[in-house]
Write a structure and sequence with these properties.
The chain has seven helices and no strands. Helix 1 packs across helix 4.
Length: about 180
Amino acid sequence: MYFFEFLKSRRKKAALFFLAGFFAGGILYYLCREPAGESLAALEENMALWASEEQDFLSVFLFILWERGKVFSVTWLAGHTKICKAYICAFIVYVGIQSGFLFFFFVTMRGANGILYWLASGFPHLLVFAPLYAYSFYRVCECRRDRVMPAAVFVIACFAAGCALEARFNIPLMRWMYG
C-alpha cells in the first residue's frame, strides 16, 4: 500500500480518535479546573515569566530535540512490536487529549484570544511534525520489513528541521504573544 492510500484509508479513524481525545482533554481540563486551580494559575504565571527570559537557540533546540525525540523514538520502537497499531491509536488519542486540554486552558485564561494562543503554540513546527508522524505511522505499519536507509535519513532530517522550526520561530512567537 502506498503512502497516500494509507492516509486515505485511515483518515476517518484517525480523526475520530483525535476528536475523542480532544474532547476528553476538554473534559479533563474542566474536571481539573477546581482541584488544580492553583497549579493552573501558577502555570499561567510561569509562562509569562518564561516569556520574559531570553535563552539561546542551541539550548532551546537541544531541549526540544530531547523532549520530542523521546516520544518520536518510542513511536519507531513500538512500530517493531505486535502492539504497533494499538500504540498508534493510543498516541493519536493522547495528542488529542493534550491539544484539547491546552485549548481549553488558553480559552479559559485568555478568553477568545486563547484560540490565537492555542494556534500559535503549534505553529510552525506542527506543519512538519504532523506529516512526519503520518509518514512514520505508514512506515511502521506497512513497511516494517523494509530497511531503507534514505527513508531513515529523510525522517531524521525532517524531525531535526521541525525541532529547529520550533526553537527558532515558535518560542519567539509565544514570547511575543505573552509580552
